[in-house]
Design goal:
Among the domains are: 139 residues, Beta Polymerase, domain 2, CATH 3.30.460.10; 70 residues, no CATH class. The relative contact order is 0.06. Helix 13 crosses helix 14, helix 16 packs across helix 18 and helix 20 packs across helix 21. It is elongated. The chain has a 7-stranded mixed beta sheet with strand order 3-4-5-2-1-6-7, sandwiched between helices. It has a two-stranded parallel sheet with strand order 8-9. The chain is built from 24 helices and 9 strands. With 471 residues, the protein is α+β, with helices and mostly antiparallel strands.
């Protein structure tokens, strides 16, 4: 076909490091983009196991090939030359293949990704030759990440490389970013993120956090990127950064590395949620907007666990802490994640934490003595009063003050009478039974709500907690 194939990029770098290669990148010199596409589509797809060929990329166009024998995609592209962007077929007849490959390497991000391996056929067998024009193998030995040529140019070509440098550093324990590259990175970070799509930012951010959350937030703060990603917290250096790092350390001590994605993201936004949740209402719209802006997957799940975290923090001031803790944990499919986040958050803020495990184990063994439909039959209007009385009866049950169904009904009747006396003479439109059902009353009102008592959920969750060990 007239083209010369070269293996480039991360696959080659990983193999040199002795790691399993990731997705394969091929550069084909001697042909332009359009002709390369035609050549790829002429290949015997069935015999080669080719499932799909898609053209992608704007800055550096590429053909993404899916094959039956590969879990990932194979990127096939002409060299990354300035001439690649020219109009027309883009043929570069007469140009030397090595020169094109060198120019491609000169436009890559870091020297360790600018190593080339030329493939050639020799008597029916494939052989190869390694080319390293920017001493990428030397930088790998020295455990450093160095930009190709002028690193400022490389960062301007694609600002995402700023995050990629940080991510590559933390995915490789012991690596550092070379001095001139770091200086250029900090300078170019002043205009970050510019017009970068949020999903590309999140892809690099999540991988870096997963590899080393403490190191990642430290470098993001040193470059000023953290404040640009989360401007809702303008004073990162005065406390939020230290608390975020302590949260991650405690979580890793408890759960190991890598942390579950939900906890990685919730721990990053915990300070913002705590600031926003200081009022009486537990609504976190700013936190949710930040999660969506950063393209967090399932942002509502992040907001829900942060909301439950704040609810746990308010139990100290509650007169029904055991019953409310039971309600919070019973609705979660991942109680161990909430326990771990709560412990990390309290310890990061140097607050005394409550050990909810004994409380929840007891709740899992203690039957409910009163249901919501019984309160409705006693004349309690559906709504917040049902919730309030059920919580107080459940609290008394968990403390041992109430042990039988008759005692539970007597306590409920006494609470109802006390409420009725306090409110006598004040019935009106607002005392109508048309009160919106709260989440807890809907869950605990028995046959009226059409739901079951959450004791089974607590028992199931406690099995998860027992398996997970102490937080």
């Amino acid at each position: 076909a007239g083209g010369q194939p070269w293996i480039v990029g991360g696959f080659l770098r990983d193999r040199i490091e002795g790691l399993p290669g990731g997705d394969l990148d091929l550069v084909i010199t001697g042909v332009g983009l359009d002709r390369l596409g035609r050549l790829l589509r002429r290949l015997p797809a069935k015999r080669l196991g080719i499932r799909r060929i898609v053209r992608a990329g704007k800055t550096f166009p590429v053909y993404k090939v899916r094959a039956t024998w590969s879990d990932g995609e194979i990127d096939v592209a002409p060299p990354r030359c300035k001439r690649t962007k020219e109009a027309g077929d883009g043929e570069r007849r007469g140009s030397a293949g090595n020169a094109e490959a060198w120019e491609d390497a000169s436009l890559r991000d870091f020297t360790m990704n600018a190593i080339l391996f030329r493939i050639r056929a020799d008597r029916g067998r494939f052989r190869g030759e390694l080319f390293d024009p920017f001493d990428g193998t030397g930088d790998l030995r020295r455990m450093r990440i160095r930009g190709v040529g002028n690193p400022s140019d490389r960062f301007r070509e694609d600002p995402l490389r700023i995050l990629r440098a940080i991510r590559q550093k933390h995915e490789r324990p012991g690596f550092s970013i070379e001095k001139d590259t770091w200086t250029a990175l900090r300078r170019e970070a002043e205009s970050f993120p510019g017009t970068l799509p949020g999903e590309r930012i999140f892809a690099e951010l999540s991988r870096s956090l997963s590899a080393n959350p403490v190191g990642t937030v430290t470098d993001l703060h040193r470059t000023g990127i953290l404040a640009r990603l989360l401007p809702e917290i303008p004073d990162w250096g005065s406390g939020p950064l230290a608390r975020t790092k302590r949260r991650y350390r405690v979580l890793e001590e408890s759960l190991g590395r890598p942390l579950p994605e939900l906890l990685l993201l919730a721990a990053l936004l915990a300070d913002l949620a705590e600031r926003e949740g200081r009022g009486p209402a537990l609504h976190l719209p700013r936190t949710e907007r930040a999660a969506r802006r950063l393209h967090f997957p399932r942002p509502r799940d992040v907001v829900r666990i942060l909301t439950d975290l704040l609810r746990l923090g308010r139990l100290r001031a509650s007169d029904t802490p055991r019953a409310r803790a039971e309600a919070i944990f019973s609705r979660r499919k991942d109680p161990e994640a909430l326990l771990a986040l709560y412990s990390a958050t309290e310890r990061a803020a140097s607050r005394g934490e409550t050990d909810f495990r004994p409380m929840l184990r007891k709740a899992g063994r203690t039957p409910r003595l009163l249901a919501g439909d019984e309160l409705l039959a006693m004349g309690v209007p559906e709504g917040p009063r049902v919730e309030e009385i059920l919580l107080q009866v459940r609290e008394a049950t968990l403390t041992g003050a109430v042990a039988t169904r008759n005692q539970a009904r007597d306590l409920a009747a006494g609470l109802l009478a006390r409420k009725g006396t306090a409110r006598s003479g004040h019935r009106g439109r607002n005392s109508s039974s048309r009160v919106s059902r709260s989440p807890i009353s809907a869950r605990t009102s028995g046959r009226v709500s059409g739901t079951r008592c959450p004791r089974a959920a607590i028992s199931s969750n406690m099995k998860k907690l027992d398996r997970s060990g102490p937080a």
